[in-house]
What we know:
By secondary structure, this protein is an alpha/beta fold.
Amino acid sequence: MKRIRLGVNIDHVATVRNARGENYPSPLRAALLAQKNGADSVTIHLREDRRHINENDLKKIKNKIKIPLNLEIAATKEMLRIATKSRPPFICIVPEKRKEITTEGGLNLNHNRPFLKKLINNLKKRKIRISLFIEPNLKDINEAKNLNADCIEIHTGKICNLINMNKSFTNELKRIKKAVKEGNKLGLEVHAGHGLTFKSAQILKRIKGIEEFNIGHFLIGESIFEGMSSVIKTFKKILKS
Length: 241
Ligand code: PXP
């Protein structure tokens, strides 16, 4: 079976930093650690409200990492300007609502389609790989192809929620399998992301034709438990004498 690439989303390192208005924990340090530990790419979402990653993070991370940076942006004039200036190797276009806690669904490809087309064409001219974050439905996948995207990223939020709540996920799994097949048939590279945990990644990795997973919230959350012992030991050492 082909190895699935792992994109590590480090937005929530910035969420923790911003909660205290400090300059730590550093998203750049997290990006470098992801790289050191075999991540295939680093994903960051520059939101309109800058609730986690900001432009300074984007600049620093883009300049310092050697693996590709995957920048998630909404289809807006501001983001087109920033992306054109920054020129990350990968861009994933995502929907964005100010009031949402996280990206709640896939893109509506018919909303402001002329601008979406312009944005994709402009960025592709700069040799940036373009991915569209969409729901696993055949209409959107065909639309993504028409829009000249290189990749689609399938929103796995729904299936991951079902798996988490121990509910039946057979229908959603079927929908995703069909979507992956359609994407592959059209020559699109297929990625998946949102809500992935150890358990859901185990299930979804069995679908043939997915090349990349982008994982953030669970990965950063789990890292707290993986790293806490070592940090406590360091403090105990400092406080010993
Ligand atoms: N892929 C995309 C396009 C996203 O918008 C997100 C969330 O920012 C992710 C993957 C990662 O989702 P999670 O943080 O739930 O792992």
